[in-house]
Amino acid sequence: MRILLYLASTVLLASQCLGLGILGLYCYECVSTHPGCGTPFNWLWYWGEQCPEYDDKCVKIIERKGAEEVITRQCLSKLRSFRTDIPADHYEGCRPAAHDVRLGHYVNNSIKELDIHRDHYESTTWCFCYFDNRCNGASSTIPSLLAFAVSLFITWLHVS
Description:
Blueprint: H1 2-18, E1 26-27, E2 30-31, E3 49-50, E4 58-65, E5 68-75, H2 76-79, E6 93-96, E7 123-129, H3 142-159
Antiparallel strand pairs: 1-3, 2-5, 4-5, 4-7, 6-7
Helix pairs in contact: 1-3
Pfam families: QVR
InterPro entries: QVR-like (IPR031424), Sleep_regulator (IPR050975)
Transmembrane segments: 141-159
């Protein structure tokens, strides 16, 4: 039993050291209108969710209009169903949103507030990352260091 606990804590420690999740990629999922999700980002409020696809990417979308800024953090696979402005290049880094000329083309709607053409924001920037869990948050490494310290402590308790 003691060897099994030691083995489990060693696997947990190794996965945290390598920056890999045990089951898949974890990303923060929130919108900056929620408390703690704006700038600065508070990782204590949002622990992250596991992405549904094995080759998923974490996304941070920054939408600006004048002084207003809305930041959305999510897995890419969860945004594909309703966002048509996803850039074709999904590699690590930030790039402007794609322009969809067909969006709202067949709708004859005179209500301006519905934003059928998705042109409310002046600029939309997509940031992709997939090399580390919860990489769509702030640039801090405190969550991974905290997980590493907890894993090290559990290993020490089971060995001694």
